[in-house]
Amino acid sequence: MKKLLPTSTVGSLPKPAWLATPEKLWSPWKLEDHKLLEGKQDALRVSLQEQQLAGIDIISDGEQTRQHFVTTFIEHLSGVDFKNRKTVKIRNRYNASVPVIVDEVTRKKGVFVNDAKFLRKQTNKPIKWALPGPMTMVDTLYDNHYKSREKLAWEFAKALNKEARELQDAGVDIIQFDEPAFNVFFEEVNDWGISILERAIEGLNCETAIHICYGYGIKANNDWKKTLGSEWRQYEEIFPKIQNSSIDIVSLECHNSHVPFNLMELIRGKKVMVGAIDVATNKIETPKEVADTLRKALEFVDPKNLYPSTNCGMAPLSRNIATGKLSALSKGAEIIRKELAL
To answer: Does residue 212 sit in helix, strand or coil?
Structure first.
């Protein structure tokens, strides 16, 4: 990116009410067949327009074509039974009914590639596309075949790599892997998580990012945060390995969190997507509040490596709240750009 402090979203944006019930995760589609395809493409156009009007520099799909950031990708893989589901505890936090791995996992065709091609035609701005990370995928399933989280994650990494290569060929500039599980399973991250992530990005020429946050602003996540104490030091456990990885960009949560800013020193030299927008509240940040967060981050991140962003996805929020937050993000980044130009 040539622009200083390029802004972006992390993942999801609210869907239009005519496509899916708003302010919900796993919201069912309101359209079917060819009307659903048209509706998803219209939603991509709307999301693009709202990001542009808000002044966002790096465009995302806002996850308009998927119901959930993990399961939509899994739905397109073979070896997964979605009918006979099991209940598991997601990230040691809350119970969920999940699909079951019953056979070898393979990717037969592209999942988001056509969506990426469609979005690429709509804009000349850089595009960032999010994919679920291998470890987070493993933690969103019941494995009745491999019986090994590491082996299953390796198969997911191979499937993700195929998808990522095709997304790159479709014109995606940054491919982001969402790994909230990295904030929980520290030993696995350091034992095999990073090496498997490296398999997922193998052979890519576009920029790659890893997003590690404290989750959507839902009750289970908010309750978990209350147990973490006055300082959230989870990043400290995994940043050293990430610093030595091939990942180009690290996306983390900052605004209204208890993450010590100095932990960013552990990834000095990496590009950092600094979460300057709280997705767990309906309160729209002021540009000054955004600027204050970015100013603190600049003590540990070189200006050329700072990418202002949101803490996480905003699917559970209303559209007017989300667009207000995006506008605040852009205006706050502009305050810092002017300060750096003095």
So the answer is: strand
C-alpha distances in Å from residue 145, one per residue of 81, 105, 149:
11, 9, 11
pLDDT tens, position by position, 197-212:
999 999 999 999 999 9
Sign of CA dihedral 179, 151, 194, 230: positive
Main-chain dihedrals φ then ψ at residue 249, nearest 5 degrees: -125, 135
Give the largest Cα separation in the chain, rounded.
62
pLDDT tens for 10-66 read 989 999 999 999 898 888 999 999 999 999 999 999 999 999 999 999 999 999 999
Contacts 24+ apart (CB under 8 A), 280-285: 280/216, 280/217, 280/221, 280/222, 280/256, 280/311, 281/217, 281/256, 282/317, 282/318, 282/321, 284/321, 284/324, 284/325, 284/328, 285/255, 285/325, 285/328, 285/329, 285/332
Sheet with 142-143, strands from edge to edge, namely 77-90, 94-107, 142-143
How do the domains of the chain map onto residue ranges?
A: 33-341
Q: Which run of H or E residues covers position 42? A: helix 33-54
CATH topology of domain 33-341: TIM Barrel (3.20.20)
SS3 (DSSP) at 153? helix
What are 85-136's pLDDT values in tens digits? 999 888 877 788 899 999 999 999 999 999 999 999 999 999 999 999 999 9
Over range 205-229, report the average pLDDT.
87
H-run or E-run covering 332: helix 319-341
